[in-house]
Amino acid sequence: MDERVGKIEDIGSAGHRARLRTRLLEAGPAALHDYELVEYLLALTIPRVDTKQHAKRLLDDYGGIGPLLGASADTLRREGLSEATIGALKIAEATALRLLEARIEEQPVLSSWDALGDYLHAKMAHRRTEEVRILFLNAKNRLLANEALWQGSVDEASVHVREVIARAIALGATALIIVHNHPSGDPTPSQQDIRLTRDLVEAGRHMKLVVHDHVIVGAQGRTSMRAMGLI
92 Cβ partners below 8 Å, 6+ apart? Predict the structure, then answer.
């Protein structure tokens, strides 16, 4: 490549990124499209290269910015991304999740239901494996712990109920919310989901432990078993 052409391209890329930065700083995140956010992240680790098309391709491949940021490091490596680029994407995910977590830690969980739903969707909706997470609450419904207790299905209900009750006692929790994801994307409760929930409600009743809800999240949305009348 002619050295002068290379310098012109470098100047063009730098100017474009400066314009993205200006829009972001002056008008906020809503001023940038998803591909521009990813483009900017890629530009942090891929200097002197136009990253717009790369960003658009990644979003197309993964089906959006949520699935892209939520993809595992191993999955992103198979995409051919460098460790530095993967780090930039994962730090963006971690920052977003930390911000959403802060919103539910600052007030009683039941009075911040929308914030909780946003956090759970960002955290779990795009996972490719099933994960069951328990939010343990104190008497004022403030979050004591947010723990992923197991990976995989909820079929072995009796085993899982004992595990949840034991952990609640250890934490001194008085209430809890069960959360898990459906990798299929469909958040409709299965019969196994319903059985686990009812077994846990019954076991909790004997221990004065309230099960507020069982929330299921997927790419297509989220469902509340309490809202559906299943608790």
Answer: 37, 41, 69
End-to-end CA distance of the chain: 67
DSSP summary character for residue 207:
T
Phi (first) and psi of residue 142, to 5 degrees: -90, 150
- 52, exposed or middle or buried, with CB in 10 Å at 0-12, 13-18, 19+? middle
Q: In whole angstroms, what separates CA 167 from the centre of its chain?
A: 23
Rounded CA gap, 24 and 12, in Å? 18
Task: Answer yes or no: are the C-beta atoms of 179 and 124 closer than 8 Å.
Answer: yes
Write the pLDDT tens digit of every residue in 74-109.
999 998 899 999 999 999 988 887 887 777 666 666
The per-residue pLDDT for range 2-15, each reduced to its tens digit, is 444 344 344 456 67
